[in-house]
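Extended Data, panel c. Modelled sequence:
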Amino acid sequence: MQVTRETFNQVMVPNYNPAAMVPVRGEGSRVWDQEGVEYIDFAGGIAVNVLGHCHPALVKTLAEQGNKLWHLSNVFTNEPALRLAKKLTNATFADKVYFANSGAEANEAALKLARRFALDHYGEDKDQIIAFTKGFHGRTFFTVTVGGQPAYSDGFGPKPGAIVHCEYNNIEAVKALFSERTCAVMMEPMQGEGGIIVPDPEFVKGVRALCDEHNALLIFDEVQSGMGRTGKLFEYMNLDVKPDILTSAKSLGGGFPVGAMLTTDKISQSLKPGTHGSTYGGNPLACAIAEAVFDVVNQPEILDAVNHKEALFRAKLEEINNKYHVFAEIRGKGMLLGCALNDKYKGRAKDFMTAANEQGLMCLVAGMDVVRFAPSLIIPDEDIAEGLARFERGIAHVIAND
């Protein structure tokens, strides 16, 4: 059956508006479309393809596990899930793991656990969740309401209650919302969709202290910032602040759908049998692939190289900006970077993304004012150089056509 981009308009619900080209094959940090045109991938499937496309270790694991066992149900456990959970707990603050299919589902579990823990230990009045404007935690109704972007949650009827928002990186604003009713704070230790915002470490420590003072849980959404993307396995390790609950997805599966919620022994006891679940969560195929991703990513030589690659990006982007004067700043950390547009080009991030795509570079936006890069952690230096050369040509095209 022949399909094209036009087929999308015929058969798909119109909540997306994908690019004109249709990718059909990927290898490493390169992708080819139906016409055989090659692209360099700085998008990474929105910070998912942590090891690029078709990494040999993942392909091998997919084939091996695919010939053994794909799916059971949570009536049974399985070896890949247990091995992956053991590796995650050994490498982090956590004692216990819950597996889901996505970041949204991991966050849904985290929020439900925080509410249930508060109910078990402090009573039904302790139900308030504090979150942040411009935050993003998924598209379920609970997670999209906790996310601080009303455009994503408006228009679907009454929202879940007892959720309040304040400005990110503003400890006084957080303090003003806290009370004995607060059961949890949910935050990204680096905001992704909201514009690649790196917090002041003292702000994060201040939030941790407020949670401790008010017997509230601190939930870190590391769906985008985790699994090596900032040069540590998880970003909380760079901040010297331990959460009570942490969520992971995206890079965790390297392109295969899988999510995880990590927490402590004590807190985990509030998710007793029957209180929460997932049909596919923790299935052996997903967990085997995620274990293979973990084994590759959690090596010093991989994590240490992230800082080197970030430096290459920043040096070339500074050179481009000295020539074209389009960015106010380069934000982010590791292989999650944002080119924040200056006042002259505000609101035009999609124009730059589209122009880059036409030059053979796949990249992203984070809101209307930030062009986002989330490439593979192992992208070759020469692909960084060539990709940024293509990005520069895209910038030149936008400016020339103004």
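The chain is about 40% helix and 15% strand. This feature is highlighted in the accompanying rendering.
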